Amino acid sequence: MSGKRGNARVAPRQGKSGLPWPKLPRGRAAWLKDHRRVARESIASVNARIGTTFLVWLLIGIALALPSGLYLLRVNLDAVTADWQGRPGLTVYFQPGVEQTDIDVLSERLSQHHAISEVDVISPEAALEEFKALSGIDDALALLDDNPLPAALRGRLAAEAQASDLELAAALARSAVGVDDVVIERTWLARLAAISSVVDRLGLALALLFGLGAVLVTATSVRLAIENQLDELRVLKLVGASNAFMRRPFLYVGGLYGLGGALLAAMLISALLLTLEGPLARLVGSYGERLALVGFDPAFLGGLLLLGAGLGISGALVATRARLSNLDIVQ
Q1: How much is the pLDDT for 33?
Q2: Sign of CA dihedral 224, 228, 229, 234
């Protein structure tokens, strides 16, 4: 009996499924648990290399701050010009001695025109006072026996109207009785349109260039992290781990790089706005307007964070796809 006891073998402990190892949990709960684990490990990995991480954040932050700043510039430019009191328009100069009824008729017709939002009638006396205030030659003008300035009429372009609509309003004014000349004032409109076009194109070009730069910076950083863990990755590959499983931690690292860069970009933009707010307020105030910076709101910050995370994950995908596909090659 002792011999039989000595030759007896201990059966391995079996799980409920009959297998010699416990069955791993499957389903969404296990998937979420694994993602939480990978996220914690990725945060610890990023914190362990805080010096390198901050450098990557700085590079991505600068790359995101420039096009984002141009976007805010365009938004504020549109906001300022929407209520701009110096909008272009036209000025109608009447012939000397024109009847007041003719002036009133043209003023009424222009007021009903869709391209004109406001009409101001300037009498010869008011025109002379304005000229005195602007020229500074009151003494010389006082020597004149008669007022040489004619009556005038100013029509301001409506906010939704286009520059071409001014031509139609000007043609209407030229056909009126007693009109001597019509001057179209569209300098500001042309300049603002040109500035907006330049800002749009420059912002698009910088967004593409610096977005590509952010992807390359993240890809390089993730590639270095992959090279530091090649032995571990080869072991995982040997035991049957999929590329998606091995890629997951690096995607989290890339996303953290992008999020940190986006936060740094938001801080850079905020500091720039605080620096420029005073001079811009004085500049806009000189034209009788009040500066109210818009666009830097939670929606903008959320979009910036999503953009940064997307660029970071894209860079990680580039790095992992290129390296993990050749993981079996011993270098």
Answers
A1: 83
A2: positive
Flag whether 331 is in a domain: no
Domain span including residue 53: 29-82+191-324
176 and 212 co-located in one domain: no
* Residue 113 phi, psi dihedral angles, 5° rounding: -75, 140
How high is the pLDDT of residue 100?
84
- pLDDT at residue 189 in the model: 57
Same domain as 149, residue 242: no
Same domain, yes or no, for 56 and 198?
yes
Give Cβ neighbours of residue 153 (< 8 Å, ≥ 6 apart).
91, 92, 94, 103, 106, 107, 110, 119, 120, 121, 122, 173
Question: Nearest CA to 211 among 265, 273, 272?
Answer: 265
Q: Are residues 179 and 196 both part of a single domain?
A: no
Same domain, 277 and 160: no
Does residue 21 lie in a domain region?
A: no
DSSP 58-123: HHHHHHHHHHHHHHHHHHHHHHHHHT-TT--EEEEEEPTT--HHHHHHHHHHHHTSTTEEEEEEE-
* Boundary-marking domain end, from 185, 208, 232: 185
pLDDT block averages, 10 residues each, the chain of length 331? 45 47 60 83 85 91 90 78 61 84 87 84 76 60 65 80 75 87 71 75 89 91 86 83 84 92 93 82 65 82 93 92 68 44
Contact indicator for 263, 60 with CB cutoff of 8 Å: no
Decide which of 185, 218, 248 is a domain's last residue. 185
